[in-house]
Amino acid sequence: MGNCNNSKDVNFDDVSLPSKTDFHMLFVIGRGGFGRVWKTENKKTKQLYAIKEMSKCKIVNKKSVSSVMNEKYLLSNLRHPFLVNMHASFQDRENLYLVMDLMQGGDLRYHLCKQKRFTEKQTKFFIVCLLMALDYLHTNTILHRDVKPENLVFDRNGYLRLTDLGIARIWKPDNENDTSGTPGYMAPEVMCRQAHGVASDYFAVGVIAYECMFGKRPYVGKTRREIRDQILAKQVLVKLNQIPDGWSEESADFINRSLQRKPSNRLGANGPEEVQNHPWFKDIDWTSFFNQTVVSPYQINCNHDNFDSKFANMREEEDNQTIQQNGLMLRRQSVQDLFNGYTFDQTITQVPFQNTSVTKPTIPHLNTQQLTSARRTNLEDTNPQLSQISSKKYHLVSSTPRLQTKSMSSSQKPQTDRSHFSNKFQFN
Predict the structure, then answer these.
(1) What digits encode the pLDDT tens for the residues 193-222?
(2) Residue 219 and residue 227: Cα distance in Å, rounded?
(3) Sequence-ordered strand ranges (E) for 187-327
(4) Which of 6, 118, 326, 399 fits 122 for a cystine, CB–CB 3.0-4.6 Å?
(5) Positions marked active-site
(6) Where is the Protein kinase domain (predicted)?
(7) By the 8 A CB rule, do 86 and 165 touch?
(8) Full domain range(s) for residue 220
(9) What's the CATH number where 183 sits?
């Protein structure tokens, strides 16, 4: 995609805002909590996109208005090659629509179910992709809070991208009441209603790496309480005699450190560099990964559907009473007003794409419980529900992350200090 930065001024009087009529809705490729995901084609440009269609009635009934407005707000201010980026958003009387990058490789959950488990080389590749995305979010003081295989999707080149910012939040202190997430991937401090920071996302990274290694999660249960009780009862560790053939001790140590129950002991508690400096990544050229010039060890066949078509096309039956109640709800102006400011067009607001020609940034350390207050203030100084034409809001988060960068050729690797990992692998 390259750098789409364009300095040409926009005359908003001449702007035509996006709508459903701009797209051919080709077929359903997935389902979400509020509706369906469509493969679509822009009628004018012939460009393919995914459109996330969400029912306003379901959103209101599930008390999730703030969640969907928050997702749109964050996506309109973020743009990165390891995120599934938003290009536009719009609405009609019944639904909200998010126009997103089309990812035709399916999600990691689909491929886990098909493959059962992955090789170490494949898993390391997946984890590096995920770390790239989390670096960007964390440096912009955002916690994803729902990192899981369903929210990691493949592009046609086998690279993973992180999606679904519905429950992502700009970090703030005293967040012990923010307990959203998916049991099995939620960090212990989140499940136990304690204040949490970036280390909570890295716990989920450890769970995913463990799942790729063994084909199952480290803590399994039917309910949130069962999983929480398991976590409190025992610290899961990959032991030396449990490491599968073809996997290294470094990989097991990475998982063990990521799954530490105490966040201050967890890998990533001191920021992204601590994770990148782990010996498991000693052979990683971060610049090449950032520029996506490394060939993926897991090849995607995009000539067939990489999703469960039966689930995607499953119809939800609604009785006449529900249909009537929903119709009355949508007629109320107070309900429609809940979604004011949802419309957005990236081509109008000119939020540029991350320049993938730059080198991999050097990322400052972020404490588990503390993030730079100035950055958080910059992100919070605007009401997420301001109108789409507000010029102020589109400068909150730069497309090029607000990070330090250093000049580095593609053959050079970041200088790392792995001395604190030497001979300290955790297998006991």
Answers:
(1) 999 999 999 999 999 999 999 999 999 988
(2) 6
(3) none
(4) 118
(5) 146
(6) 23-281
(7) no
(8) 108-301+414-421
(9) 1.10.510.10
